[in-house]
Amino acid sequence: MATQLPPLAAIRAFEAVARHGSFTRAAGELGMTQSAVSYQIKVLEERVGTPLFVRRPRRIALTEIGRRLAPAVSEAFEHIAAAWQEARHGAQGTLVINTLQTFATAWLARHVGSFQLAHPGIAVRIETEQKVIDFARNEADVAIRAGSGGWPGLVEHQLIGTDFSPMLSPRLAASVGGLREPVDLLKLPIVSPNDPWWPDWLVRAGLAADALAGRPRTSLGSQSVEASAAIAGQGVALLTTAFYRQEIEAGLLVQPFDIVGTEGQRYFLVYPEARRNAPKTRAFRDWILPLFDQKTA
């Protein structure tokens, strides 16, 4: 006999409340009233035979049974989402890559053509977003994230570090007779002088962390735009070294000093555990990891 399951609506309500820690936010996400969500939780608790949440003033908490149940329910929804995506698109469908704008512009757009040549049956759609997406509610198959890793429920593959160093156009460097030591950079206009990376690099270069204090607090919004400004001779930009090797080789940019700063973070390829063996995910993973000298899994 098949195991009897509780109503899907009750399970969905439980997963949303457990994830948000709030009946109100769960109701907003599900398009339900708060009382309807509370009713679904009550239905589930009656089926289980024990409370799943402890109700306290202005907050709720999972009970011990609730804490054991929540991860399994979330994983089940991930499997359903992955199966649904595979059913809709299949191995020969559209691979949706969610990534940061800088990675998309400075690296992915330059290389993704070789993936498409190797997999002509897979179309590619690149979405750029700065915030961390929820795979259960986003169409993305894989994502490129920057950080320290450790995202629950996701498989992670390290790609490259976020090391950075000042770069500028050769013409701008020549305008002050060349750059012989780091202090010479202070003679030039700086692109985004309030970039939080600057104090770290300045200290590594033997300069004061606040050496750029007093400069106009301009910000161009993304590293790709800052790189374009640097190539155009508008100033010195602090750029991720791994992204602009082609521009340096082509003579569009120079990196005057070998001094690099780092936040200790990296770019990662990530995707839900449930999609590890999905054909599109496997194809992209097996293509991108060797390009960064990483092992496939």
From TrEMBL:
UniProt-listed InterPro entries: LysR-type_TF_proteobact-type (IPR058163), LysR_HTH_N (IPR000847), LysR_subst-bd (IPR005119), WH-like_DNA-bd_sf (IPR036388), WH_DNA-bd_sf (IPR036390)
Location of the HTH lysR-type domain: 6-63
Gene3D superfamilies linked: Periplasmic binding protein-like II (3.40.190.10), Winged helix-like DNA-binding domain superfamily/Winged helix DNA-binding domain (1.10.10.10)
Taxonomic superkingdom: Bacteria
Transmembrane parts of this sequence: none
One GO term (biological process): DNA-templated transcription
Record has Disulfide bond as a keyword: no
GO molecular function: DNA-binding transcription factor activity; sequence-specific DNA binding
Keyword annotations from UniProtKB, A to Z: DNA-binding, Transcription, Transcription regulation
Signal sequence, renumbered to the chain: none
Record family assignment: Belongs to the LysR transcriptional regulatory family.
Descriptive protein name: LysR family transcriptional regulator
Organism the protein comes from: Nitratireductor arenosus
